What we know:
Blueprint: H1 2-13, H2 17-43, H3 53-69, H4 79-84, H5 106-111, H6 116-127
Amino acid sequence: MLQRLLLLIRDEFGLSRSQARGFLVLAVFIALSWFGPLIYQRFLQYNPPVISKEDSQTADSLLAVLERMQPAQPTYGNRSNFIEKPFENPECPLSLFYFDPNLASVSQLQELGIPRFIAERIEKYRNKGGQFRQKEDL
């Protein structure tokens, strides 16, 4: 039967004897890898581990401690300091007014509550020829 199958493979694909054997071995491995997990799940049922009540209570208490230790909002690197700091300067209170971002100076942008380094970046952007055409651009 095996010889007949090898002969059929050789005739169909034009392979040598050793190539036909390699093809057959490869086909068997592919079939096993395709159907192996299905067979494994079918015949070997997974029994979840039994957790004692004492271990469950210990895990719950540890989880409660970890939840109390975590901050309300996640912090990511150096940006967390920037996010937590208010933008307003106590010496110079914020004031809202209509402005054109293409013409506003650094001090005017700071009066709106934009940090100095961002206001300077906006100014550099405008100096290099950049323009704000829509609100979303800013």
